[in-house]
Design a protein that fits this description.
elongated, single chain, 10 strands, alpha+beta, about 325 residues
Length: about 325
Amino acid sequence: MDTNTQAQGFLVGIRQILIHGAITLLAIVIAFSLPPAARYILYVWWPRVETDTSLLLVTEIGLASALVLLFNLGKVAWDNRNKVAMARLTALVYARNARNDWLSRLRERALVRSLPAARDACVLTLTGHGTFVDERSPVREVLRSAYEIRVMLVNPVGEGVRRRVESLPPEVTVLSFHGEIEASIAYLAELRKLGKKVTLKFYDEEPFWKVVVLGDHVWVQHCHHGCELNQQPEYVFALQHHDPRRGLFVPFYTYFLERWNESRHPEYDFDSSRLVYRDAAGHETGRAPLGVPISSIGTPARHGLTTIDGHNQARLRSHQ
């Protein structure tokens, strides 16, 4: 991880040097071209304009248009400067409205490829289908490079799932949520077979945020009541090492850690397919069944959707 970070920093430094060099070269070219341009305007162009009213009118219109364009560009640059300053203050490095167009997916995948390998990954989401199972997920393959993966999914038989399903269109059922959770558990089980340290917990309340932490970056989506998650805007915030208090990375990471450390959330035992309850000290206090038949633990995650009817399969990617 340190080697990748150093290599990325070296490339950023080289890029900055090249940009500064190009700007300096452009300034030199403009400076050397000003005297010949001034002589041409004063001694060649202006004598022609003085004797030709049509050419004078064209020149005035052209100069006015150029000034209007220049001032507009200056205003846009100033407004963008303020927006960039606000984005830096919040540590926002990427945002997209919906992952429906190929350009948004391409940009997001480019961002993921540019990130150094993350040792730890933290995921707080609904069913996990859009993060672990959907092949369009930009972080699906990145999770394979992480060693320790902590995941929180909504309890398939909890009150939060019922309220979430009731707020969505009638074709979305609790059964489809169960199938998505089953597929996510199957994917996480495959990661365990690859030697990853995977810990899965379930929460009961209706979700408010989807949070995915990979190294020094966090993906965030608001789980708006009554709206499908894949239609919600997505934001990526980065940790600012020089001043961690700035930006929204730390608040969202803390949001995940606070819920992860709450003892009321049971942990899933992959070997017995049961929920393990612990007290505040970490001692086991009891076990209970998950409440949903998990039949695809030994199969790849993409085959974990066999218990869902065909109509609901088409909507699986809508709930994440």
